[in-house]
Amino acid sequence: MIDSPSLTDAVPVPRLGTREYLIVGGGLAAIALAGWAYMFYMAWAMANMDKVEMWMPPIATATWTAWDFFMLFVMWATMMAAMMTPSILPMVTMFASLNKNRRSRQQPYTPTFIFVAGYLLAWTGFSVLAAIAQWPLHTAGLLNPMMDSRSYLLSGLVLVVAGIYQWTPAKDACLVTCRSPLGFLMTEWRQGAMGALIMGVRHGIYCVGCCWALMLVLFGVGVMNMLWVLLITAFVLVEKIVPAPGAFRFVSGLGLVCWGGYWLSLYFA
Fold first, then answer.
1. Domain coordinates in residue numbering, the chain
2. What span, in angstroms and rounded, lies between the C-alpha atoms of 70 and 61?
3. What is the mean pLDDT of residues 160-176?
């Protein structure tokens, strides 16, 4: 059951002190940096198979095992943590600020890491689905063992879909929520540890709804193409803070559709 804090509980929202902000920001940075370190190592190892032993997806004719699927899931879950954790700093600091206010009033409060855990749990669920989607792309030979696209059709379709999704009401609704930390917490507030976990999951679901199509672009440009992983991460950050999100969504969607249309024209040529 939602137990929204009253306005006197939440407004004015106290600012976090320097030490508190460093703890919150440092915790998120540690999660993101650990994910990036793993991703860069994996990319390096895949390019240097003569130096280290590294898991790679089986070739199209090989049999996939449970271990292959698990490693694919781990890759996606780590990548989502690395890419998405930086973008939730405003939401997490707002959650911590509300908790600080409740604590100062001797009201029940919940550790911030539980909210973050719920957020990452939502992206873990997306990672399962992404791994399931990638599996048949390898078996069909549309992705090579380096996880690069072998198909103009695949690359074109995912780019066009991502571009069109930028213009949809669903994208708009999810992005508005992601850009409004206080509004989300005021309407979704729940008490206790389970409440914080549920809030984190619900916010994560909104973020998945906002960014899922952008993540699928990696199927078209290379799942382990670290340049594009970095660019999409930056894109997600900018999209949440840019002053004119509607114009940004229109232009970015148009660019993706045109790019995808180019690849499709090569396929049908």
1. 7-268
2. 19
3. 96
Q: Considering the chain, what is the average pLDDT of its residues? A: 89
Of 28, 16, 183, 22, residue with least CA distance to 104: 16
- Which residue matches tokens 């940075």? 29
CB atoms within 10 A of CB 42: 20
Q: Torsions phi, psi of 32, nearest 5? A: -65, -45
For residues 119 and 202, give the distance between their C-alpha atoms in angstroms, rounded to a whole number: 7
State how far the alpha carbon of 138 is from the alpha carbons of 31, 85, 146, 223, in Å.
Answer: 29, 28, 10, 12
The whole-model pTM stands at 0.90
Q: Which long-range contacts (CB under 8 A, 24 or more apart) does 98-106 make?
A: 98/5, 98/9, 98/10, 98/13, 98/185, 98/189, 100/14, 100/16, 100/20, 101/9, 101/10, 101/13, 101/14, 102/5, 102/9, 104/14, 105/9
DSSP code, position 235: H
Question: Prior bond to 12 cis, omega within 30?
Answer: yes
Q: Where are the alpha helices (DSSP H) in 107-191?
A: 112-139, 152-165, 169-178, 181-188
Which pLDDT does position 53 carry in this prediction? Answer: 83
105-132 pLDDT, tens per residue?
Answer: 666 668 899 999 999 999 999 999 999 9
Helical ranges in the chain per DSSP H: 7-10, 18-47, 66-84, 89-104, 112-139, 152-165, 169-178, 181-188, 192-221, 226-241, 245-268
